Every structure is written in structure tokens, then in C-alpha cells.
Amino acid sequence: MLNNELEEKLKNIKLIAFDLDDTALDGKGRLTDETREAIIMASEAGIEPVIASGRSFYSIPDEISQVPGMRYAICSNGANLFDTRKKYCISAMFLQPHSVEQIVKLADEYRDIIYLDAFTRGIPHTDSFFLETLLNNDKISEHRKKYLRKTRKAEDDIRSFIEGHKSELDCINYNVFDTSLFDELMERLGNEVDDVYFTSSIPELIEISYKDAGKGPGLRRLCEILEIQLSEVASFGNADNDADMIRISGVGYAVANSSQKALDAADKVIGPCWENAVADEIKRIVKSRENINT
User: Fold this and answer.
1) Which of 104, 107, 134, 245 is most deeply packed, by most CB within 10 A?
2) Where does residue 203 fall: left (phi above 0), alpha (psi -120 to 50 degrees), or beta otherwise?
3) What is the pLDDT of residues 115-165, one digit of tens each?
4) In the chain, what are the helix, strand and coil shares in percent, each to the nearest 5?
5) Closest by CA position to 50, among listed 174, 218, 291
6) Are the CB atoms for 197 and 210 separated by under 8 Å?
7) What three-state secondary structure class fits 200?
8) How far apart are CA 34 and CA 227, in angstroms?
């Protein structure tokens, strides 16, 4: 996108959607003062700031979801839309029970390689043994270990939990210890599991939701509710699960530390997450809006 074209589009932005981990948050999962300030500035300028995350709603810290001016979150890769102020689910879509059975059946062929997460109504549950073994797993970053231990509700028998809640699951995640199997698992999901959308935000994770989920469709649904056009949206992301959202937005941004799929979808590549690049670009959008009102 040429600079003049970009500047014209920025003047019309009414909503900013941003991924959290490794995008709006720094490399250690923190919301910096600069980014918090930029989000508040956007809201005060009449621009709707929206979280768009693969995280379940109740694994988003209050210091992020309750930033002044924040009202909405696209969660669980678009399976849920939440009102962040009221902590109320505006809309939800669940995996079909037959899909859940197929997902678990496939995982059972990779015991001790795949560990399961199950999100239900915004609450993340996981295998207690998985949490117990995190400290000894050198393939998982210290930041992710801390995040998982803090946010997950441990279940002694995650498969029994899934069976008992298979009609109300936002998504199921495969935590994959052997990342060499990643492509094989993605192919098998496509061939053997019905009515699902699946994606990934990091190499150790495959995220599976209902077929109509995804951050892109989630953004579409929220825009319809708010009566905002996609052309009036700027979105920020870094991973494969952000690519569709980036692509369909009026202006799509990828941070420099993005996957190739996210980079290919972007209108503009900005600096890495650890340099407050999202904050700087949000302030630029706010300035563009202010210029048309002066």
C-alpha cells in the first residue's frame, strides 16, 4: 500500500483490533505504559479499541481487558465475543459434539506427545499432568510456562471433562511436545475432523474451533454489531491465526516478529512487539483522525 493511500485510509479508522501475545504485549507478555496510553488515546479520539486473541476471555488479565475505553474482545480465535466491562459473552459458537469426538480420537493416537486444553465459556481447562511436567520441558519458553500455570484450571482427567462438556466447548487445543509432527497433525485434522477451523499462534500449539470461528469472522461479526465497515478497521497481529483478520481489515499491520503468513497478509510491516511498535502506530492513527477534525 502506497503512503498516500495509507494516510487516506487512516483518516477513516473507527476501530482498532489487536492481537495480544507478541503483538500489543511485549516479548515478556506485558502491556507497556506506552501501549496502554495509546489505547486510551484511541478511545478518547472516538476509535474503538478491541482485543483480538486466541486466549480465552478469562485468561486475559484485568489490567488489559479493563483499560479505560476498552469495551470488546474477540476471544478463543473468534469463537467468543465478550463485553469486557461487564464480563459478559455477547456471542458464542461451540464445537459440534461429533467434531469433539474426532478431535480426541486423533489426539489419543499421540499419547505423551499431545496434551489437551479445552475452553468452555471463556474458561481454560487443561490436563493436570501437563501442568506438572511444564518445568521439565525445555521446548516451552519460561514466559509460556508462567502463563499456562497462571491461567489454566487443572483437570485430573481432561478427556472426561471434555466428554462431559462436549456441547459447550469454545475450542480444544493440542499442546504438541514433538513439533516435528506439526504438519502431520494439521493435515490429519483437515482430512479426518469435520466442521472445524484450526490454526496456530506458536509452533507448539494447534487451536481448534468451530468451522465459522477465526479472528477474521469474529471481527466481521463485531463490526456488524457496531455498524462499522471493515474498511474502517485497522488490525494488528503476528501469527498465522491473525492473518485473515489482517487481510480483511481496511489497514492490516504485522509486527516485524511475525510469521510469514501474517507478513504476507499485511498492508504494512511495523517494528517488533518489544519496541512498542503497535503503540506508535495507534498514535499515528489517532493523529490522522485529529488532522481531519482541525
Assistant:
1) 245
2) alpha
3) 999 999 999 999 998 898 887 777 777 888 888 999 999 999 999 999 999
4) 45, 20, 30
5) 218
6) yes
7) coil
8) 29
